Amino acid sequence: MAEPKKKKIVSADTGEEVSAGSKKKPVAAAPVGNATGLRIGAVVLWVAAIVFEVLALMVALGKVDLKIMSTLVQLILFLVLDLACVIAGAQLWKKANHIRPASEKNPFLFWLWNNMGVLVCVVAFVPFIIVLLTNKNLDKRTKVIATVVAVIALLIGGVASYDFNPVSVEQQQAAMAAIADDVYWTRFGKVYHTHDDCQALNRSEELTYGTVEQAIAAGRTRLCSFCAKRDDITGVVTDDVDVSDVRIEETVEPEDPAA
Fold first, then answer.
1. Whole-angstrom Cα distance, residue 58 to residue 55?
2. How far apart are CA 228 and CA 223, in angstroms?
3. What is the model's pTM?
4. Choice between 180 and 149, residue whose per-residue pLDDT is larger
5. Which tens digit of pLDDT belongs to each residue from 84-97?
6. 71: closest CA among 161, 132, 160?
7. Which residues contact 171 (CB under 8 A, 6 or more apart)?
8. Residue 84: CB partners within 8 Å, gap ≥ 6?
9. Rounded-to-integer distance, Cα 146 and Cα 150, Å
10. Residue 113: Cβ within 10 Å count
11. Cα 110 to Cα 207: distance, rounded to the nearest angstrom
12. What are the residues facing 102 on neighbouring strands?
C-alpha cells in the first residue's frame, strides 16, 4: 500500500489551509453558485454558436465572402468558433446542473436536460454538413475538407457536451441527508470522501473540504466506496469500486492511561 503523503487541506469557501487531522472550521452553508447565471451564459454562447454556423452556411452558399481569405479558411474559421461556443456553453450548463440538479422521476426528461449541450451541438453542425454534401457550387477539395472538419467538430463537441456524471436532485438530497459532516475531494477526482485519511487518498497532496452540496457542485457526484463501507453509509450513490473483500483501515485512538 502506498505510503500516505502529507496533505494540504483547504476550505472550499475561504481557501484557508488547515493541517490534516486538526480541528477544521465548519464550512458555512453558503450558496454553491448561481445556476441561473450559468444557464444564461450557456444559452448566450449557444446562440453565438448558431450565428457562426449561419455565417459558415452563407460562406458555403456564396452569400458571404470576406475576400481576405479563401472560402475554405473562412469555413474552418467559423466552424472552430462554432465549436468553441458549443463546448463552452455545455460546460456552463453542466456546472449549473450540478448546482441545481433536475429530478430523475422522468428518465427521458432527465437525460434531455442534462445533455442539452449535445442537442445544441447537433443543431450547430448537422445542417451545415447536409448543405455541404448537397452543394454543387463548391469545388470538391473545399467540400471534402470542410465536411471532414465539420464531422470532427460534431464528434468532439458531442463528447465534450455529454454529461457522463449527471446527478439528480434525489441523489443530492439523499447524500445531504446521510452525510452531515464536511467531505473531502481532490482537484481532479470524481468522488468525494468522508475521511481525509481514506486509503484512496494516500497519494493525494491537496484536498478541498466542504459540504456535500459543494462537492456535488464541484462535479464530485459520487461517494467513495471505501468511505461508504467505513461509515456504513447506504442509499447514497458511490463510485464503482468493489470493496466487498477489501479491509478498510480505520484510525485507532490510543488509550488514555489515566482512564
1. 5
2. 7
3. 0.80
4. 149
5. 999 999 999 999 99
6. 132
7. 101, 104, 221, 236, 237
8. none
9. 6
10. 17
11. 31
12. 168
d(CA 5, CA 206): 9
Count the residues in the chain: 259
Distance of alpha carbon 17 from the chain centroid? 25
Residue 165: is it exposed, middle or buried by C-beta count within 10 angstroms (0-12/13-18/19+)? middle
Cβ atoms of 43 and 241 closer than 8 Å: no
124 contacts 138 by C-beta, under 8 angstroms: no
Encode pLDDT of 180-227 as tens digits: 888 999 988 889 999 988 888 888 888 998 899 999 998 888 999 999
Distance, CA of 189 to CA of 176 (rounded, Å) = 20
- At position 120, the amino acid (one-letter code) is V
Q: Which three cell numbers mark 129?
A: 454538413
Three-state DSSP state, 207: strand
DSSP 166: -
Long-range contacts, stretch 176-182, CB < 8 angstroms, 24+ apart:
176/211, 176/212, 176/213, 178/233, 178/234, 178/235, 178/236, 179/212, 179/223, 179/233, 179/236, 182/24, 182/26, 182/27, 182/209, 182/210, 182/211
Cβ(36)–Cβ(50) below 8 Å: no
Asked if 223 and 175 touch (Cβ cutoff 8 Å), the reply is yes
